[in-house]
Write the C-alpha cells for this entry.
Amino acid sequence: MDEQTAPFHHCHVSTKTILFNRCFMSLNALLLSFLLFYRSSFFLSSPAGRPPAFAWAVVSFGELFLAFQWVLNQAFRWRPIRRTAFPDRLPEPHLLPSVDVFICTADPDMEPTIDVMNTIVSAMALDYPPGKLNVYLSDDGGSPRTLNGMREAYEFARAWLPFCRKYSVRTICPKAYFKDEGEGCDHPEYASERKKIEERYDLFEDNITKFKDRSRGGSGVDGRNHPFNLEIINGQSGGVQQRDMPLLVYVAREKRPSHHHNFKAGALNVLIRVSALISNSPYFLVLDCDMRCDDPSSVKQAMCFHMDKKINSSLAFVQFPQRFHNISKNDIYDSQIRSVFTISWFGMDGLRGPVISGTCFYMKRESLLRRGPGDPLINEIKELRKTFGLSNELVQRLRADGSIQYPAEDSSTILEDAKVLASCEYETDTKWGKQVGFLYHSVVEDVFTSFNLHCRGWTSVYLSPQRPQFLGTSTICLNDLLVQGTRWSCGLIELGLSGFCPLIYGPTRMSILQSMCYAELGFFPLALIPVICFAVIPPLCLFYGVPIYPMVWDPCFIVFPLAFSMLILKHLIEVLSSGHPAQTCINEMRISMIKSVTCHVYGTVNGILKLLGLRKSTFVPTNKVSDDEQLKRYEIRVFDFQTSPMFLVPVGSLVMLNIAAFVVGICRAILQGDWNRMFLHIMLSAFVLIMSYPVIEGMTVRKDKGRIAPSVTRLSALVCVAILVSGWFYFA
Ligand SMILES: O=c1ccn([C@@H]2O[C@H](COP(=O)(O)OP(=O)(O)O[C@H]3O[C@H](CO)[C@@H](O)[C@H](O)[C@H]3O)[C@@H](O)[C@H]2O)c(=O)[nH]1
Ligand SMILES: [Mn+2]
C-alpha cells in the first residue's frame, strides 16, 4: 500500500466474542428472571408456608441488586474491540507534534526518590524527537531530595539516552534494564559500554542515597505547607531547535494548610498551566511516579490515533493499560485488576472509549480546556479570565494555537508568571476543577474527568499492545490494597450517588450502554449489599433451621445452582481466555468478597458523608516501599493479615458465622436424616468457607507475623455471637 494513504491503525471487532457474550447474556437473563419470579411467588404462597418476611426481604433485595449490577456489567461485554497501531507509517519526525510528560510525586518517604527518578529517566528516553519531548515533575512534597534527584537524573540521562539510542534499548528504565541480564547486543563495544553506563547508574543511585542521608535530620520542608518552586533543569545543553535532550522541569506548587489542594487532580492542573508557559505542547502523557515507561514506542503508537484525521477531531485521549512489574505468578490479591484491563476497557472502547485510568494516557490538551470537540475556545477576554483565572500570560498561551516558539521567554519571566499560576489562590473563583482541567468532585479524578469528557462528546481509545508500554508498582499486601480500595470506593460512590449519577446524568448526553458502563463503576462499591446479605442471612437461617431457598424437591430448586454456576462459568472462561490460570478465578472471587465487607463499606460511608458535606476527602498515597517479608508472603501465596482490626473483624466474624452455621447445619442434617430442606444453605456456606480458607488458616493454625492476631479473632467471635443472638430473637 502507498505510504501516504496507509492507515496508522487498525480496529478489530471480535464478532465471535460478541456473539458468544450475547448468547451467555440471554441465557443468564432467563435464569435470573426465573429466580426473581421465584422470589415474588412469596406473595402468592399461603401465609403458613411462607419464609420469615424480613429474611426473605433481605435476601430478595440482595438478589435483585446482584441482578441489577449484573445487567450493568453486560454493557462491557456488548461490543468489545481491539486495536493495533502502525507507528512506522507516521510522517517524518519534524512533522510530529510536541508532547509534554506530566509525572506526579507527593511524598519522598512513601515514594522512594530513586524510583521516581527512574520513571523520569525512562520518560526522557521515549522514542521521540528530543526537541519535542518535555518532561515535568510535580512534587507535592516540595522536597529538596526530589529536586536534587532531578539534577542527578538529568546528568545520568545525558549518558543514558545516547546509550539507548545507539543500542536500540527497549527497556528504557535503567533500574529495570540493569536488573535483567536480558536485552543483549552483538555490537563489539556493547559489553564495555554497558559496564560503563552501569557504573554511572550506581553512582547516580549512590548520590541520591548520600543526599538522603545528609538530610536525615529532616529538610525542614513540610509536605503540606511549602512555597512554590520551579527549576528548568537543562544542564549545559545547547539551542532549542536542535535540542538533543528533552526538557526537564521541576515544579512544586505552593501548598498551604488553609487551602484545599485537591490532591493529584490539583497537581495536574498546575502542570497544565505551568507547562503552557514553557512548552505548551498540544498533547501530554500523564504518569504516576511509580509508573515507568517500559518501551520507547508508546508516544508514536498514541500519535497513530491523535494524528489520524478521520478520528482525531473528537479524540480526547489514548489510554494504555496499567500493568505492574511486581505481580507474582499467583496474584492472590488480584493486584493486577485483571478484569478492568483485560475485559472492561476493551468493551468500553467499542462504545466511544475507555475511562481514564489515572496514568498511562496521552491526552489532547485542548480537550480539558474547551467544552466539546469542535467548540471554539471562549473568545471574550472577560469570559476567558473568569474561566481560566487572571493570568494574561496563560490566556495568551491558550489562544496561541502553536504560533509561539517555545520557550518563548527567558527563564526569569517564566518563573514570575509560573509562580502566580501555581499559587494556592490562583484557582479561586475560576472554573478550574469544575469545568476545565482535571475535575475535583471525586477522589478518583480519573473516572470522573473522563465521564465528563464523554458526556461532552469527546471520545477515547484503548490500546493494549502485547509488550507492556508502562509498568507500575501495584499494592501487594492486604493493608495497602484495602486502604487504596477504600479511597477508590469513596471516589466511585461520589460519582454513583451524586447529581452526576451516570444513569440519570448520562443517557441524555451519551449512549445508554456507555452510561451503563459508568454506572457499573459508580455503583461498584455497592457490591457490599448482596455480599453482606448473603453472608449473614442464609447462614443465620441455616443455624436456626429455617429455609429461605427452595428445597431439593421444589421445581424451582435447579434455578439457583444453575444461575450460580453460569456466573462462575462465564468468569472462568474470561479468566482462561485472558491467559490466566483457573486459580485466578478463585483469587478474584475471594478478594472481591473481602473487599465487599471492608473497604467498600468504609469507602461508601465516607463517600456519602462527603456528599452530605460532613466530611472532607482524603488521599492517602499508596505505599511504594516494599517490605521484604510481606513481599515474600505475596510471592509464596500466603495472605498477609497485618492490617487494621477495622478491616479484619468484619471478615473474621462473617467467616465464623458461616462456620457455626455450617457445623450446626451438617449436624442437624445427619441427626434428622434430612438433607433436602437446607441443602442450598449448606452449599452456600460451604462455598463461603472454601473461599475463606486463608482467613480460617490465619485465625487458627498460623503462627507467623502475618497471621490474624488472637485479639482480633476474639473480637470477631464476639461479633459473631452477637449476630447469632440477634438471629435467635428473630427466629425464635
Ligand atoms: O496529593 C497528592 C496525592 C497523590 N499524588 C500522586 O498521585 C499518584 C497516584 O497516587 P498513588 O498513591 O500511587 O495512588 P494509587 O491508588 O496507586 O493510584 C491509582 O488511583 C488514583 C486515583 O485514586 C489514580 O490517580 C492513579 O493514577 C492510580 O494509579 C502518585 O504519583 C502520587 O504521587 C499527588 O501528586 N498528590
Ligand atoms: Mn500507584
